[in-house]
UniProtKB/TrEMBL annotation:
UniProt xrefs under Pfam families: Bac_luciferase
GO MF annotation terms: oxidoreductase activity, acting on paired donors, with incorporation or reduction of molecular oxygen
Organism: Pseudorhodoplanes sinuspersici
Origin organism lineage: Bacteria, Pseudomonadati, Pseudomonadota, Alphaproteobacteria, Hyphomicrobiales
Coiled coil, from the record: none
Protein name (record): LLM class flavin-dependent oxidoreductase
GO CC terms of this entry: cytosol
Length: 336
């Protein structure tokens, strides 16, 4: 199982941490992830609210690229709806170059009304805008000279003056509804999802996986271990109680900043199971259950709610040094 880090970069102006300090914490976590063997460091794009303080993930990933060696660098997500495809393709071609070919490009259409309002984009247009920009970006990132005549963007006979190192940059499409997983698969795309916002209980994650795989089979490109990644809030501690003492208030603070969405507190998470909070054994068993559902890539969201960076680092270390070997042993024993 591939384990990654997902960072929303949630910021709290009323707390004693500046945006610059937050950026340093995020970069330090990426450096640690690189050394510990995490697969990818995913960062979010958000605008005009404290829910997320990175409006351009390409800049953050370029900074991380200069401090890391092997860690892949992902967007979760790059919001295509708000931007010109030429600018998007140029930005992320540069990230792939600066990182030596480590870009994992997750895309989405956006969902927060205040972001659409800020950009002056009608939310009713988001699906059409997303489809158009994604098609254009795919052509541009191929490195070939191309043209595009669309409803929202037009360019003719353009070739990027910087092209990605990867011949085919991995592109993932994000969904918030489990029903959309089938359609992403049917289009032959890779999938990103956040079960916290998509399902009612932990066991429902299996439906997302099966629907996505069904769509991929119908598209003639069956899913593999690299085609789906899902994100779960994570904190690994010595005991379940210690995890609660450390992470509950931070998680509830994080939840409190989420606009327009259902609120699910730490206690709610304990009931619905949509988390990776607890002791080494608790998290081990949940990862094994995910693997049995067909999940091979988990994005762990560990730096939420202004959690002190030393606590984040402890959890990151414990997940790789204690949980991962235990998961491998349990899976091997089951196979035997």
């Amino acid at each position: 199982m591939r384990l990654s880090i997902f960072s929303v970069q949630d910021h709290y102006p009323s707390h004693n941490r500046s945006v610059a300090a937050l950026y340093e914490e995020v970069i330090s976590q990426a450096v640690l992830a690189d050394g510990l063997g995490y697969d990818t460091f995913w960062v979010a794009e958000h605008h005009f609210h404290e829910y997320g303080a990175v409006p351009n993930p390409a800049i953050m990933l370029a900074a991380i690229a200069q401090r890391t060696q092997r860690l892949r660098l992902g967007t979760a997500i790059s919001i295509l709806t708000f931007h010109n495809p030429l600018t998007i393709a140029e930005n992320y071609a540069m990230v792939d170059l600066l990182s030596g070919g480590r870009l994992m490009y997750g895309v989405g259409s956006g969902y927060l009304p205040h972001e659409f309002g800020g950009y002056g984009v009608d939310p009713a247009e988001k699906r059409d805008r997303f489809d158009e920009v994604l098609a254009a970006v795919k052509k541009l990132l191929s490195g070939k000279r191309c043209s595009h005549a669309g409803q929202y963007h037009n360019f003719k006979d353009v070739k990027l003056n910087v092209t990605p190192i990867q011949a085919s940059v991995p592109i993932y499409v994000a969904v918030l509804r489990k029903e959309a997983a089938y359609h992403v698969g049917k289009q032959g795309n890779n999938l990103l999802c956040v079960p916290y916002a998509s399902v009612d209980k932990f066991e429902d994650i299996a439906e997302i996986v099966s629907e996505f795989r069904r769509g991929r089979v119908e598209a003639g490109v069956p899913a593999d271990d690299n085609s789906l990644a899902l994100a779960l809030h994570t904190h690994v501690a010595e005991t379940d109680q210690k995890a609660r003492e450390t992470a509950a208030d931070a998680f509830d603070l994080y939840v409190d900043t989420r606009l327009y969405a259902r609120k699910s507190t730490y206690d709610d998470a304990m009931k619905n199971g949509i988390h990776l909070f607890g002791s080494v054994k608790t998290v081990e068993d949940k990862l094994v259950a995910l693997k049995q559902m067909g999940v091979q890539h988990v994005m762990t969201l560990q730096n939420f709610g202004n959690l002190p960076t030393e606590r984040v680092h402890e959890s990151m270390n414990r997940l790789m040094s204690e949980v991962t070997p235990a998961v491998n042993n349990q899976v091997s024993a089951s196979a035997a």
